Amino acid sequence: MGTVKINDLRVNAVIGTLDHERIHRQELIFDVEFDYDSTQAAGTDDFMTSVDYSAVERCIVESVSASSFKLLEALALFLGNKILDEFAVSRIKITISKPAASAYGALISYTGEFFPGRRA
Q: Which of 35, 30, 25 lies closest to 4 in space, CA to CA?
């Protein structure tokens, strides 16, 4: 078993409950961690037996760019389920940070962890 981390992935999205958030895209920062059975990939050094990190990254960027959610929690669940459906991963942990969320300069984030067979 191995863990892959994709950190500081920045995507502009429609996210939030306020009127201006529904009109203007804002930057979200994603930190994603997923587990998969890397035994064969590590033993053979064969890309075809691994999870394509760039494909996971592209899936996140394209899905988030085309989405419109009010809550970080709902977006994380949507992405978690999508990645579990499309890639051979056994666990995914997604942290989404919303830099523009706080009027006081705090960084607001949400973390969700998702597993196959345990869907909301």
A: 35
Q: Is residue 87 part of a domain?
A: yes
CATH code, domain carrying 52: 3.30.1130.10
Following CA atoms 118, 3, 49, 45 in sequence, which dihedral angle do they give, to the nearest 10 degrees? -170
Give the other-Cβ count within 10 Å of 16's Cβ: 20
Q: 71-111: per-residue pLDDT in tens?
A: 999 999 999 999 999 999 999 999 999 998 777 878 899 99
Domain membership of residue 120 (yes or no) is no
- Amino acid, single-letter form, for residue 88: A
Using CA of residue 35, residue 58, residue 67, residue 69, what is the dihedral sign? positive
**pTM (2 decimals)?**
0.91
Mean local confidence (pLDDT), 5-10 = 98
Residue 119 falls inside a structural domain: no
For the beta carbon of residue 94, count every other beta carbon within 10 angstroms.
24
How many domains, in total, are found in the chain? Answer: 1
